[in-house]
UniProtKB/TrEMBL annotation:
Residues 1-24 have a biased composition (Polar residues). It comes from the Bacteria. Gene3D superfamilies: 3.30.450.40, Winged helix-like DNA-binding domain superfamily/Winged helix DNA-binding domain. One of its GO terms (molecular function) is DNA binding. Residues 97-280 form the IclR-ED domain. InterPro entries: GAF-like_dom_sf (IPR029016), HTH_MetabolicPath_Reg (IPR050707), Tscrpt_reg_IclR_C (IPR014757), Tscrpt_reg_IclR_N (IPR005471), WH-like_DNA-bd_sf (IPR036388), WH_DNA-bd_sf (IPR036390). GO terms for biological process: negative regulation of DNA-templated transcription. This is DNA-binding transcriptional regulator, IclR family. Residues 1-37 are annotated as: Disordered. It comes from Rhodococcus maanshanensis. Keywords: DNA-binding, Transcription, Transcription regulation. Residues 36-96 form the HTH iclR-type domain.
Length: 286
C-alpha cells in the first residue's frame, strides 16, 4: 500500500449526531484562528472545549483558541450572556444552550449508529469483560461514539465524544485502512505519535494498513498509552464502505487481543447487518 503525500493538512471539527442514515463522518476544516471576525473567534473559543477539557479558565481557553486573553475574556462574557458558556467562579464550561442546539442537528447520525450497535457491544462486553468502543472517522481522528466498561475499566484517554489520532489506535487504523487516498495522505503527513510504540513514519503506516486490509483486524500495541492494548474490526455498509469500527481494549498484563479475534469479527458483522437492514428499510420507504 502506498500513501500519496500532500502539502495540506485538514483538521476536523464538529460531531454528527441524530439523523436518518448511517454513513462515514468526515471532518471539516477548523476556521482560521487568525480570522478578524468576532464570530470566528467565538467559535474558536467554543471549539477549545473537549471531553478531556470540559472546564477551563480564561488563560487556558485563550491559549487553546490562539487568541489574546483580553479578547477571549470579552467574547466569553458575550457567550455567557447567551448561555452558550457557563461561568462558575473563574472557570468556564459549555452552556445548556449548546445542548439544546445539538439536539436540533440533522446531520448524519451517530445516534442511530449507537442504537443499532448497542446490543452487540453489550454482547462483546459480556464475552470479554474488557472495555468496548464504537468509533467513526472524523477527519484524521477516531471519534468515540460509544464506550462500555465495567468496574475493571482501563485507564484510557478514550471517552464518548473524544477524538484521538486515528493512526495511534486500533479502532482508528481499522477505519483508515479502508479510507480514501486523500484522508490517508493527510494522516500520513500529520502523524502524532503518543508513545514510543506509535506509528511514526508514512512507510510504517502504509505497511500496517496493508496488513489490516488483508486480515480485517487492527491492533494497538501500547500506541496510545503505555500498558494499554487493543483489537478492532471495521463495520461495513451495504455498499461495502466502512462506516464505523468496534474495538476491545485492556491492560497488557490481562488482555490478549489475539484471543478476541473471533468475538470482534462476529460483533462487527452483527452491527453491520443491523445497519444494512436499517439503511435498506429507509431506502425502500422513501
Amino acid at each position: 500500500m502506498t500513501i500519496p503525500s500532500t502539502a495540506t493538512s485538514a483538521r476536523p471539527t464538529g460531531t454528527a449526531r441524530s439523523g436518518t442514515s448511517i454513513q462515514l463522518i468526515t471532518g471539516r476544516d477548523h476556521p482560521d484562528p487568525d480570522s478578524s471576525t468576532s464570530v470566528a473567534k467565538a467559535l474558536a473559543l467554543l471549539s477549545s472545549f473537549t471531553p478531556h477539557h470540559p472546564t477551563m479558565g480564561v488563560s487556558e481557553i485563550a491559549r487553546r483558541a490562539q487568541l489574546p486573553k483580553s479578547t477571549a475574556h470579552r467574547l466569553l462574557a458575550v457567550l455567557v450572556d447567551w448561555e452558550m458558556v457557563t461561568k462558575r467562579g473563574t472557570e468556564y464550561s459549555p452552556g445548556a444552550r449548546l445542548n439544546e442546539l445539538g439536539a436540533l442537528t440533522k446531520h448524519p447520525d451517530t445516534q442511530e449508529l449507537r442504537r443499532v450497535a448497542l446490543p452487540h457491544l453489550l454482547d462483546l462486553y459480556e464475552m470479554t469483560h474488557e472495555t468496548v468502543n464504537l468509533c467513526v472517522l472524523a477527519g484524521e481522528d477516531a471519534l468515540y461514539v460509544d464506550k462500555i466498561h465495567g468496574h475493571n475499566g482501563v485507564n484510557s484517554p478514550a471517552c464518548i465524544g473524544a477524538r484521538l489520532p486515528a493512526a495511534n489506535t486500533a479502532i482508528g487504523k481499522a477505519l483508515l485502512a479502508f479510507s480514501s487516498t486523500d484522508v490517508l495522505a493527510r494522516v500520513s503527513n500529520n502523524l502524532r505519535p503518543a508513545t514510543s510504540s506509535s506509528i511514526a513514519s508514512p512507510t510504517q503506516l502504509a505497511r500496517e494498513l496493508t496488513m489490516i486490509q488483508r486480515s480485517g483486524i487492527a491492533y494497538d500495541r501500547q500506541e496510545i498509552r503505555p500498558g494499554l492494548t487493543c483489537i478492532a474490526a471495521p463495520v461495513r455498509s451495504w455498499s461495502g464502505a466502512v462506516i464505523a469500527a468496534v474495538s476491545i481494549s485492556g491492560p497488557v498484563h490481562r488482555f490478549r487481543p489475539a484471543n478476541a479475534v473471533p468475538a470482534i469479527r462476529a460483533v462487527a458483522a452483527g452491527v453491520a447487518k443491523l445497519a444494512q437492514e436499517m439503511s435498506w428499510q429507509q431506502h425502500i420507504s422513501v
